[in-house]
Please model this.
Amino acid sequence: MMSRILKSTLLFFILIGLFSCKDDDTVTIYVVPYAEQEPVDNAAIVEFLTNNYFNEEEFIAPVVNFSYDIEFSTDQMAGSYTRTPLINYVNTVINNFTIETKTIIVSDVDHTLYILKIVQGLGAEQPRFCDEALLSYEGMTLGKDVFDNALNPVKLDLSGTVKGFSESVSEFNIADNVGIVGDGTFDYQNFGVGAVFMPSGLGYYASPVGSIAVYSPLIFKLKVYGATELDHDSDGVPTYIEDLNSDHDLNNDDSDLDGVPNYVDTNDDNDPILTINEDIDEDGDPTNDDTDGDGIPNYLDSDS
Ligand SMILES: [Ca+2]
Ligand SMILES: [Ca+2]
Ligand SMILES: [Ca+2]
Ligand SMILES: [Ca+2]
Model:
């Protein structure tokens, strides 16, 4: 089921193509402007956070072998324990739990992510937006319809997931210890645990994907275990460095303007030398070789 969190832009364009090329009729599909949809989605998320609680009592006093599974519920009482409405956690720390907000701009419109942090994670690393993360997750709508999950740890290239997903997973730290249990399975300790509430503009927006209605805000529960730096074109330059303008969009960095973005371009400056071979000092890093001393490393310098 995990393929459903992959970006659906391609599907979207194919659908438009099918609908708009019927005979000579041009059918225009109306797409709601982000500036109109974001406030609607935000209000729906705030309503969810106002009316729902999570099983905080289980995280405050975890039993042996606790699953660290988050359960959202409209029940405020858990036995004699009174839960805190989720909305109270927004930008406030209570019992070491919090909901951090993060603003992501899509087509000039601010979109707010609500990231519930239950366990930050004690590992040193955080997966970057374009790294491979080892994680488990469950995706659901605000109506709590589960549309996707990976309950056992899977490796996911975050650059291929929707922005609301990659920008949330990258806010957690990984496990600080991995043990191998007797049966050969792994036992991760102190991994990141949380959830994200995202407006549709950071999810699938107007693209119909599986059972998810268009313009659906989404929830993903997350457990983040590990991170691996990726180099998509194996040119010696890690993908996160190929995002030259650091805007977390890999597709708008194309140094030689040949239509192939740097992160998948094995020759970023279109000179006769592949990027991997511009690593003059052969230290495995082509970004620190600047023969003519002009401040532009050779792999991006067509006159080096
Ligand atoms: Ca690269
Ligand atoms: Ca970029
Ligand atoms: Ca290029
Ligand atoms: Ca080159």
Q: What stands out?
A: The pocket of calcium ion (ligand 2) is lined by residues 243, 245, 247, 249-250, 252-253 (CB under 6 Å). The mean pLDDT is 92. The chain has two domains: 2-228, 231-304.
